[in-house]
Amino acid sequence: MLRIGTIVLTVEDIERAGDFWRAALGYVNRGEPSDDWVILDPPDKTSWDAPSAASIALSVTGYPQHYPPRIHLDLYADDQAAEVERLKGLGARDVDWDRYPPDADWIVLEDTEGNRFCVVDTGDRSAA
């Protein structure tokens, strides 16, 4: 059976991207970053193949970003508004996207490198 081990994001500035994703997710460097590669793990991950949350790798490839990107991360948030503001404070940016349905439970942002991700509201929507 397969499972996701690492999601690789293409970046231009590995230090800036690493700072963003470590602060956003509370992840830690698996090892010392190189000039073009770093793997970020959940802090409780005990080995590279431990069955916990997926790791994120940041890779400087020199290839241009594609818009819209073909994959993105969905980040789940109990308090979506607070998380969106926190992530913007870390350097995330709004994406000018006009295709939200009226009942959308996600907000599209991009990280410091232009990689898009969604912040999905997992809070109690029955009160809405």
UniProtKB/TrEMBL annotation:
InterPro entries reported for this sequence? Glyas_Bleomycin-R_OHBP_Dase, Glyoxalase_6, VOC_core
Q: What is the lineage of its organism?
A: Bacteria, Bacillati, Actinomycetota, Actinomycetes, Micrococcales
Cross-referenced PANTHER family: CONSERVED PROTEIN, HYPOTHETICAL FUSION PROTEIN
Entries under SUPFAM superfamilies matching the protein: Glyoxalase/Bleomycin resistance protein/Dihydroxybiphenyl dioxygenase
> What highest taxon heads this organism's lineage?
Bacteria
Instruction: Outline the extent of the VOC domain.
Output: 3-122
Record protein name field: VOC domain-containing protein
Q: Give the matching Pfam families.
A: Glyoxalase_6
Gene3D superfamilies in the record, alphabetically? 2,3-Dihydroxybiphenyl 1,2-Dioxygenase, domain 1
